[in-house]
Amino acid sequence: MYAFINAQQQIQKAGETLGLSREVLKKFQRLDRIIKKKIIVKLDNGKKEQFIAYRCQHSNLLGPYKGGIRFHPNVDEDEVKALATWMTIKTAVAGIPYGGAKGGVSIDPQKYSNQELKKVSQAYVEKMASFIGPWQDIPAPDVNTNGQIMAWMTAAYRKYLQKNNLAGLQNAQACFTGKPIILGGSQGREEATGLGGFYILEELMNKLKRKTRDITIAIQGFGNVGSWFAKFAYDAGYKVVAVSNSRGAIFAKKGLNIKKIFAQSQKDNKFHIDKNVQQISNEELLELKVDVLIPAALEGVLTKNNIKKVKADIILEMANGPVTVEAEELFLTKKNRMIIPDVLANSGGVITSYFEWVQNLSANYWIKEEVFEKLHQKMRIAFNDVWEEMITRKTSFRIAAYILALKRLIEAYLLEK
Ligand code: NAD
C-alpha cells in the first residue's frame, strides 16, 4: 500500500537537496502509465480462471522502459508503481540507456502446473504486446519468473509480430532479457547480480582502506543473488561467517567453506551441518557482530522493530528494498554506518540485461570474460559517481544515488523541454 509513497518520498528528499522546483519534481514522482488487464486462462481441469496483469511504465527519458515481470500473489498496483520508479533510478545510476518499468501478475505460481504458467505467460504478452518492444519496453525475469518464462514470452511476442506483419521490423528476442543462452541470453547473466554486488564491496573496501581477510560477512538468502555473491567474496578471501535460506541459517566463527556449501546447495538446496558449522535462526543471522550484513532475500526484512539489534556497520542491499525507510533513519543515527542502496548494489543484473539486449540487436555475442569485464567497468563507474556525490553533499549513500539519478534525468528533461 505504501511502497509507491516511499519511492515518491525518496525522490522528494533528493530533489529538495538539489533545490528542484515542484514542477520538475512532480515529473519524476508521476508515472507515464499503468496498464492493468484481466487475463483469462483455461486450467488443466478445464475450468477458466482470471488473473490481473500489470505493466507500469515510469519514465523513458533516458531510453526504452526496462523492468522485470513478477508472478506473486502480492503483486498489485502500488507494488509495480514503486518498483517501476526504482528501476528508473537504478538504470540512471548505472548509466545505461534505459528508463524504468515493472510488470507482474497477481498469482501464486506454486499452485499451477507448467502448462498453466505457460498460458499465463502467453496471455500476458498478448495483452501487453502493443506496449512492449525492443525500442519501447523490455521486460525481464523477476520474482518467480525465469528463463523458461522469458522463452514462452519471446515466442508469444514473435507470434504477435508475425500476425501483424511486423516480424521484419522488430527483433522479438531483443524484447526480453534474462533468456536462456540458446535463445539469445547473455553469458554471465546468472552470476551478474551477485558479481556486481561483489564489485561494489571491493570498491567500498578500497575506499575505506580495509583489508579483505579481516572482513566478516553475513548473508541472508542463498538463492541466485546471495550464493553467487558469497562465492565471489569467499574466492577473494573475505570471511563469510553466516548464510541463510528460508529454512534456516548456518554460522562458523572462523568462516564457512562457501565452496562446499555452494556445491551442496546447487545439488539439493540444503545446508549440511557438520562439526565446523553451527545452526542458528534467521533472526540471529541478522543480529551477528559482523562487518557487513547482506540482505539478499526479500523486501522489508529490516524494520523499525529489528534494526536496533543489527550490529554490522555496513548493510549492502542485494535484495530490492530490504530496509524500510524508518529502519534506515534509525540505523544511520549512529556514526560510521552505511547502507549501500539496492539501486546501486544489485544493478549488476540490469546492466547485464542491457548487455544481452545490445548483443541481440547487434547479433554479436560475447564470451563470459568480456561480459564480466564490461560489468566491472560499469559497476566501478557507478560506485565512484555515487561516492563523489555522497562526499560532496555530505549525505547518505541512498540519497546520493537518487541525486545522481535525478541530475541525469533532469539534464535530459531540460534539454528536450
Ligand atoms: P531466489 O529466489 O533465487 O533466492 C532467494 C533466497 O532467499 C532463497 O535462498 C530463499 O530460501 C531465501 N529466503 C526466502 N525467505 C527467507 C528468509 N525469511 N530468511 C532467509 N532467507 C530467505 O531470488 P534471487 O534472484 O536471489 O533474488 C533475491 C533478491 O534479490 C530479491 O529481492 C530480488 O528482487 C533481488 N534481485 C535479484 C536480481 C536477480 O538478478 N536475480 C536482480 C536484482 C535484484
Q: Would you state the CATH class of the largest domain?
A: Alpha Beta
Largest sheet geometry: 7 strands, mixed
The CA-CA distance between the termini, in Å, is: 33 Å
Structural class: alpha/beta
CATH fold-level name of the largest domain: Rossmann fold
Total count of domains = 2
Could you tell me the radius of gyration in angstroms?
21 Å
Number of beta strands: 12
Average pLDDT works out at 95
Number of helices: 14
The level of helicity is: 40-55%
- CATH superfamily label of the largest domain: NAD(P)-binding Rossmann-like Domain
Q: List the ligand species.
A: nicotinamide-adenine-dinucleotide
Low-confidence stretches: none
Note the overall shape.
globular
Can you tell me the CATH architecture of the largest domain? 3-Layer(aba) Sandwich
Strand order of the largest sheet: 9-8-7-6-10-11-12
| % residues in beta strands | 15-25%
Essential attributes:
417 residues; alpha/beta; Rossmann fold; 2 domains; seven-stranded mixed beta sheet; five-stranded mixed beta sheet; 14 helices; 17% strand; globular; binds nicotinamide-adenine-dinucleotide
